[in-house]
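From: lab user (bench 3)
To: helpdesk
Subject: output format question, protein + zinc ion

Hello, I'm new to running complex predictions and I'm not sure whether the block I got back is the full result or only part of it. Here's what I submitted:
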Amino acid sequence: MVGSTRPPLPTYDQVAEALPLVLEGDVAEKHLDYNGHVNMRHYVKFAAVSSDRLLRGVGIDDDYRAERRMGSFTAEHHVRYLAELHVGDRWQAHTVWVDRSTKAAHQLSFVLNASSRRLSATVEMMLVHVSMDDRRAEAFPKDVARRIDSRIERTRQIRWPLPLGGAMDVGVSAVGRSEARVETPRAALPRPGWLASSSDLDDAGLPRHARRFGEDRTACGEAATGWRYRWRPAFDPREPVACARCRTIVWSIPGSSSV
Ligand SMILES: [Zn+2]
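Helpdesk reply: Thanks, we reran it on our side. This is the complete output you should expect:
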């Protein structure tokens, strides 16, 4: 992981202006630890409660768990503590949907200190949609997926890069694919032997290219040297950001599916 490639942190004003306020409160004595500032567990709690509001907003609530027997488990957290919160400070949580796959979703919370007008923490969270009966991951149903996608589209309108830590991502994004056919045509399956690679700016929506293991060029001829790669099981032409030229080239090579 190369630290210098991390996007810059947004300012208090950027967050407060661009993102919906989900939760707020005042820091009390009970929030403090022996260092005299808000203890880390409360940041996680602020983000968790804020996250739950977002979940309820897309329909994942008590009724959903009871009637549809599905829900959401938290799988990962990544917290960056940036500025202290003290007694009497006003805190605000602004939380957004970042991305989703068929079964997992990535959220990002900003905890602001509204009294000092500083960004106090960021909390990234990975959620997995589950069956409440067998406690295993299960795909988001179409209606919920559509609602999440509309919120992710809104997040993508933000004019500054999200300060994601790079510790987690959903893998293959499924945004906009809630209408995908249940049966995937054979020709659209990911091709073994072709790895998907992308630049650091991949979250900005740049194309993902196909590349064979060990080669320094993508199938479409882009220089691949010096890039930082995300390794995926296979180049997936169903991804909306899959490079169109790579897709065509990969399909035209006989036997590439058996490599
Ligand atoms: Zn390409």
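A quick orientation on your result: The pocket of zinc ion is lined by residues 209, 218-220, 222, 243, 245-246 (CB under 6 Å). Let us know if anything else is unclear.
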